[in-house]
Amino acid sequence: MTVAEVDPLIETLYRFSDVIGVLLMGIIGGTIARQRGYDIVGFFFIALFSALGGGMIRDVLINRGTVAAMSEPEYLILAFTGALIARFVYFKGKTWDYAQAHGDAVVSGLWAATGTVKGVAYGLPVLPCIMMGVFTATGGSMIRDIVTGRVPEVFGGNQPTVIPAVACAVTVIVGHHFDFLAVAMVVGPLISIGLSLLGFWANWRVSARSDWAPINDTAAQIAVLARRAEGKGREVGRRFEPARLRAWRHRQMEKALQRRIEVEVGRGVSRRTAEANAEEFLDEFNAEFPSAPTEGASESESKLDFGVDLAGDSYDDYGANAQRREREYREMLDRILADNEATDLLISRLMKKYNERD
Q1: Total domains in the fold of the chain
Q2: pTM value?
Q3: Is residue 207 part of a domain?
């Protein structure tokens, strides 16, 4: 794969920007070394990693010839010069923060383009070319952060740097594909610089939420929708169930509850207390199991407003097995309600479970 001819003026601008970028990154690395309390050796090493680390990673991965930083000694001289400048001048304050952010955005955009172009020149596939641009733009800062004992800023929660580099690299690759490499080498860095400055001025940050999991969230939403659909299905099932049968169940449960009250009174509990306990139990029970309409039930038969349709709470699905289980459940419930002793035992157990919850 051959690289399209680039205007000499653009090459000159890139070369000049590359030189300025190495010097600026050397100063930034030296300033960070000062903040960490390092000596002059630390200044030199941190400046070296900041200014030349990304290019070194790129050239080692491409494995074509000598690493540029070693074959062209002016890069080392510029990086060490930046370290010395940072050693003799203490850069700090708002002005320095703005200058560092803007300079870093410009240099990262230009380095992303040069790294991508170098990958294209050596015939690498599309994805590795993008990675060469990203490593060139951000590799130095990653090495610097690791050496100084910090979590690399490119790993999230900070001003985005990888996303602008990827945008620049993609622009360069598309431009090369359509034989507009010279244009792409201008447009790509501009896009990267714009995205980086957007992150600085608009406080744009890459989310680093550890609990963010869209698959889990989607599953939870589906579960909610399934419960709603299940509730709708139960309502449909109750509407199709004979009203006379539900009214009979309703009356049987009320009678059993009345007998329960009489048993409590016989044990020495005042009738008012027994009825209050029953009402409290029914309120709690009806809150969990919505009562079904009781057409045909008289006002006297609904004294306690006991509208619980126990047979309607098993509409979990609509397959043949589920329908068979529902039918067996309703038949078993009807046999229990037809026997006063069995119904009283059911009420006693339900009351016991209710009291245990307290």
Answers
A1: 2
A2: 0.59
A3: no
In 3D, which of 151, 155, 165, 160 has the Cα closest to residue 205?
Answer: 160
Six-digit token pair at 314? 């098993």
Helices and strands in the chain, H and E counts: 13, 0
- Of 173, 201, 229, the position where a domain reaches its end is 201
Residue 181 belongs to what domain range? 8-201
Per-residue pLDDT tens digits for 220-231 = 778 777 777 766
198-202, 257-261, 308-312, 332-336: which is most confident: 198-202
Q: At what angle do helices 73-88 and 40-62 cross, to 10 degrees?
A: 150
Give the pair of three-digit tokens for residue 228: 């709603």
Does one domain contain both 234 and 338? yes
Length of the chain: 358
Rounded Cα distance, 190 and 177, in Å: 19
Residue 293 has phi, psi (to 5 degrees) of -60, 145
pLDDT digits (tens, 9 = 90+) for 27-79: 999 999 998 899 999 999 999 999 999 999 999 999 878 888 888 888 999 99
Cα–Cα distance for residue pair 148/292, rounded to 1 Å: 69
Q: Is 114 left (phi over 0), alpha (psi -120 to 50) or beta?
A: alpha
Alpha helices in 89-125 (DSSP H): 94-121
Of the candidates 242, 353, 347, 358, which has an alpha carbon nearest to the alpha carbon of residue 304? Answer: 347
Cβ neighbour number for residue 78 with a 10 Å cutoff:
22
